[in-house]
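Re: that backbone. Tokens:
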């Protein structure tokens, strides 16, 4: 598995100018779209109609991160919008295996996310059902928080299981990813890196993306 992927989060973009904000990150591998419902997390962002419009105009694939309750009901609708991947939270899904299968059969890659306090061990047996495991490296809900080093052993444990089973599963990290922290996450085994404020909070997102790629390798 290579450390290829930088996914800027549009949570830190200018929501009034989403189309031009997408063009500024054209050199990234995908755009990370944070959907929040003010219930699973104490924040509200955007929903399915906006994701459909982003999908229609984005020059790069969409990586949708659902921070919503009742993932079993809603996640397949996002997959049906034609996005590249849909990630639901394990804490919000009643039947994660069935849901991952549904996402894949709708044509999306299936991702499952874990809050910092959620252990990975109960889910190791279902890694083969996933294309991506998202280890949250901050408490979900807001951009601009500091990377939690306490999540590194979980990344290592997941990476070990993925290597051991020879599984084609990417490990995504999300939260507090900067040129300073990305190396630690990559060293632990992460392969896909979400970065919001460290990309959109800079003068030139393309330069920030290139810097993250260098720092990850
Ligand atoms: O899912 C989330 C927050 O819940 C993220 O995707 C953030 O948008 C990342 O922002 P930074 O920590 O990189 O600023
Ligand atoms: Co996210």
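Recovered sequence:
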């Amino acid at each position: 598995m290579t450390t290829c992927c930088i996914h800027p989060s549009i949570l830190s973009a200018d929501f009034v100018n989403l189309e031009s904000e997408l063009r500024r990150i054209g050199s990234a591998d995908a755009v990370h779209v944070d959907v929040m419902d003010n219930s699973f997390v104490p924040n509200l962002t955007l929903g399915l109609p906006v994701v459909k419009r982003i999908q229609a105009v984005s020059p790069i694939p969409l990586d949708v991160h659902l921070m919503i309750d009742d993932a079993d009901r809603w996640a397949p609708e996002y997959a049906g919008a034609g996005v590249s991947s849909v990630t639901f939270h394990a804490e919000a899904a009643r039947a994660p295996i069935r849901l991952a299968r549904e996402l894949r059969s709708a044509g999306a890659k299936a991702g499952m996310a874990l809050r910092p306090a959620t252990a990975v061990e109960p889910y190791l047996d279902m890694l083969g059902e996933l294309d991506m495991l998202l280890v949250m490296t901050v408490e979900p809900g807001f951009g601009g928080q500091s990377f939690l080093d306490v999540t590194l052993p979980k990344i290592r444990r997941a990476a070990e299981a993925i290597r051991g089973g020879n599984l084609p599963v990417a490990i995504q990290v999300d939260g507090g990813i900067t040129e300073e922290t990305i190396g630690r996450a990559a060293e632990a085994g992460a392969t896909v890196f979400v970065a919001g404020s460290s990309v959109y909070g800079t003068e030139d997102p393309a330069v920030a993306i290139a810097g993250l790629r260098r720092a990850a390798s």
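The chain is about 35% helix and 20% strand. Strands lie at 5-8, 31-36, 62-67, 85-89, 109-114, 132-136, 170-174, 192-195.
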